[in-house]
TrEMBL record:
Keywords in alphabetical order: ATP-binding, Nucleotide-binding, Tricarboxylic acid cycle
Transmembrane intervals: none
GO molecular function, one term: ATP binding
Keyword Nucleotide-binding: yes
The ATP-grasp fold succinyl-CoA synthetase-type domain, residue ranges: 30-212
Record's protein name: ATP-grasp fold succinyl-CoA synthetase-type domain-containing protein
Top-rank lineage group of the source organism: Eukaryota
Listed GO CC annotations: mitochondrion; succinate-CoA ligase complex
Source organism (scientific name): Cordyceps confragosa (Lecanicillium lecanii)
GO BP terms, alphabetized: succinyl-CoA metabolic process; tricarboxylic acid cycle
Pfam families tied to this protein: ATP-grasp_2 (PF08442)
InterPro entries (UniProt xref): ATP-grasp_succ-CoA_synth-type, ATP_grasp_subdomain_1
């Protein structure tokens, strides 16, 4: 897929993205993520929301594609109660995407936030260099952002072997309008975490479609690779 000034492997996410697996890698790597649980039945979904709290997000774990945070909220995949979680889970586990039924759900804790941004690491097919892509219009995939808000997309090349230098973190923070030290430090930790996953897993596209600003920290709400 092409976005302004960048050609990325945007189809890779649809081939192998899984929110639960991505976040399982992200937390040990140092990224901040909301607490989440995997459910394989309506009963497990009910129990998960009892632990995590009302208004938890339910995401069907399908190899073809993950539903974005914006789509979840628009289609009612926010469980207002344990009982609603069980009903939603029953429908999601019966449904299919292209003939492939979901076998498990990832249920994440509600996280109040002010804004959500888009953040990704990918390989620029024109320069063959690893690239960080950001936009202030998060909560959706890069295709939608490129179509609706192309001017908001910014990209930054980096070197896999050297990681994310502080100067690059400062540059991205400045472009996003981050002024607080706490958020800049949080951004640096998030970028370092994504770089570690991207390098270890030999990724082609690692997305955080909803990078939320929460009380001085940046939280990965919706991610896949």
């Amino acid at each position: 897929m092409r976005v302004p000034g960048l050609s990325v492997y945007a189809d890779n996410r649809e081939a192998c993205g899984k929110t639960a697996r991505t976040e399982a890698h992200a937390a040990p790597a140092g990224a901040v993520i909301p607490r989440g649980l995997v459910a394989r039945s309506p009963e497990e979904a009910r129990a998960a929301v009892e632990q995590l709290g009302n208004n938890s997000l339910l995401s069907a774990q399908l190899l073809k594609r993950n539903v974005s945070l914006a789509e979840q909220e628009a289609t009612g995949l926010v469980a207002g109660s344990p009982e609603q979680a069980a009903k939603l889970a029953a429908n999601l586990l019966r449904a299919s995407d292209g003939g492939i039924a979901a076998k498990e759900l990832y249920i994440s804790q509600p996280t109040p936030h002010d804004q959500v941004w888009y953040l990704a690491m990918t390989i620029d097919r024109e320069t063959y260099r690893p690239t960080i892509v950001v936009s202030k219009h998060g909560g959706q995939d890069i295709r939608t952002i490129a179509r609706q808000h192309p001017a908001s997309i910014r990209s930054y090349n980096f070197t896999l072997t050297k990681g994310i230098p502080e100067s690059l973190t400062q540059r991205i923070a400045s472009d996003l309008g981050i002024s607080s030290t706490a958020e800049t430090i949080s951004l640096g930790k998030t970028l370092t975490s994504l770089h570690r996953i991207f390098l270890d897993k030999e990724g082609m596209l690692l997305e955080v479609r909803s990078l939320a600003r929460c009380d001085g920290a940046l939280v990965c709400l919706d991610s896949s690779f």
